[in-house]
Amino acid sequence: MNVYIQSVLLGIVEGLTEFLPVSSTAHLRIAEAAMRIPLDDAYWKMYTIVIQAGAIFALVLLYLERIVAFIKSFPRGESGDRTWKNHPISLTLIAFFFTSIIALPLHKISEKHLGSVAIMAWALLLGGIIMWVIDARASRYEPNTLHVEEMSLGQAIWIGICQSLSAIFPGTSRSMSTIAAGQMVGLDRPSALEFSFLLSIPTMIAATCWDLLKSIHPGKSALAAGAVPVAEVHMTSQNWIVLAIGFVVSFIVALGVVEWFLMWVRSHGFTVFAIYRIVLGILLLVLGSKLLGS
């Protein structure tokens, strides 16, 4: 397949799945395997990181006005009833902190032992079931939090803890973890989704920078295993164009997906995504080794 077409397709996959609760990691791995892209190639590792940055940029742009409003209202909030402990900015950073202190120590273990197709498939399947059950339960009860501005410190900490699952178990999905966690502690669907988006900004920026740093300066064990530092990748004009295509396509697609997702959730909830995860998880369990070659 033409490398430029590959880049367009991968950019579409990243833009479509980064903020939907279906696991962008699983979808990118499936797409790259289907296109016979070597997963251990230094250039393609960098490519995956860069197109994720395109999706992040799209989300920041969409939420820029909201973020600026939060900054201006800190720490009292728009209604004057917030403090530095429970303002939306504080809650976002606190949730991110709890994600980090759990995920960072366990991430290396996860990369070494939990990156198999079977683990990814089970994460998709079980995550879909959990999401379906929680969304169905939430629809039968009146939520106690209708706006992000009304969230408590305890809710933010819980969501941050649950988000760490996505860093430990590939296929879990950061969005699924945070949305389901939010609904469990009383957030309505739009609020759970909005806080998931807000929390994804520092989380994805930190994860992207961390992945890029590891790719530029691999550890001794990675070098011993034959890893090539990104800094040593020879960038041709074609490589730059392929990279730019993936970034731009991911950015444009993510712009549309975030807006559509917000509208869909208000009317339909998350059931369709839960069912999709379950079906994909079962398919990977049955055909994963043949499809991904692992």
Characterize the structure shown.
This protein is mainly α. It is built from 12 helices and no strands. The protein has helices at about 5-15, 25-35, 40-60, 65-75, 90-115, 115-140, 155-170, 175-185, 190-215, 220-225, 235-270, 270-290. The protein is globular, with a radius of gyration of 19 Å. The two termini are about 20 Å apart. About 40% of the residues are buried.
Kindly name the structural category: mainly alpha
Radius of gyration: 19 Å
- Give the tally of β-strands: 0
Helix content: over 70%
Poorly predicted regions are: none
- Overall spatial form: globular
Approximate strand percentage: under 5%
Helices, by number, come to: 12
Mean residue pLDDT: 88
Characterize the largest beta sheet: strand count, sense, and whether it forms a barrel. Answer: none
**Measured distance between first and last alpha carbons:** 22 Å
Q: What is the H/E order?
A: HHHHHHHHHHHH
Secondary-structure topology with pairs:
Elements: H1 3-17, H2 24-34, H3 42-62, H4 64-73, H5 88-113, H6 117-138, H7 153-168, H8 174-184, H9 189-216, H10 220-224, H11 237-268, H12 271-292
Helix pairs in contact: 1-2, 1-3, 1-11, 3-4, 3-9, 3-11, 5-7, 5-9, 6-8, 6-12, 7-8, 8-9
